[in-house]
Amino acid sequence: MLRLSPLALAPLALLAACSDGGADRDGDGEISSEEVAAEAGRVTMRPGEWEVTARLTEFDAEGMPPEARAMMDEQMGEPQVTSSCVTPEQARNPQGNMFSGEDGENCTYSEFSMSGGQLLIDGSCQSEGMEGSMTLHMEGTYTPTSYALDSTIAIEGGAGSEGGPLRISGRVEGRRTGECEPDPGGEEGGG
């Protein structure tokens, strides 16, 4: 059975979330990676088969060769659809590091709000070995069985093909389509 990548699980981590005032647990006005991980760790979602549709709505990299630009333009708006089984175990622990950053990343958030079916995230990360910085803006809606998120990632300093800025925007929509199909190896809902 197909396992979900952290990128695919990121929006799913938001499902069924309830916020009691945001992730700023210590009240210092800054939301640390640890506070984000704690907030996301409280989230549960409905296990089962999930269909995720992602569309690239903007891709701009300074200095991108014309051939690469043409290829990206062809893909703009084209849906990329995947279907994956979210096991009960994955649903109980949807990986808090999706928003707090992988090892070697230093992420902070000026906004991290998940409540009332609405989501708003603004943050920035600095990855080890990466010149420049990345900013993230994500907003959307969610229910226990569906979500729709618009996101923009901007990387300044060293990201584009000539070391210039990079900006990527897209829309991700997901919905639970039912129970997981048994895999051919005989493990139902295996991941």
Mean pLDDT rating: 74
Number of domains: 1
Order of neighbouring strands in the sheet with most strands: 1-4-5-6-7-8-2-3
Report the order of strands and helices.
HEHEHEHHEEEEE
Number of helices: 5
What is the SS-derived class? alpha+beta
What's the helical proportion of residues? 10-25%
Q: Percent of residues in beta strands?
A: 35-45%
Spell out the blueprint of helices and strands:
Elements: H1 6-12, E1 31-32, H2 33-41, E2 48-61, H3 66-75, E3 80-86, H4 88-92, H5 97-100, E4 105-115, E5 118-127, E6 133-143, E7 146-156, E8 166-178
Antiparallel strand pairs: 1-4, 2-3, 2-8, 4-5, 5-6, 6-7, 7-8
Q: What structural keywords apply?
A:
single chain, 191 residues, alpha+beta, 8-stranded antiparallel β-sheet, 5 helices, 8 strands, disordered N terminus
Report on this structure:
The protein has one domain. Helices cover 18% and strands 41% of the residues. It is built from 5 helices and 8 strands. Residues 1-21 have low confidence and may be disordered.
In short:
The chain has 191 residues and is α+β, with helices and mostly antiparallel strands. It has one domain (6-178).
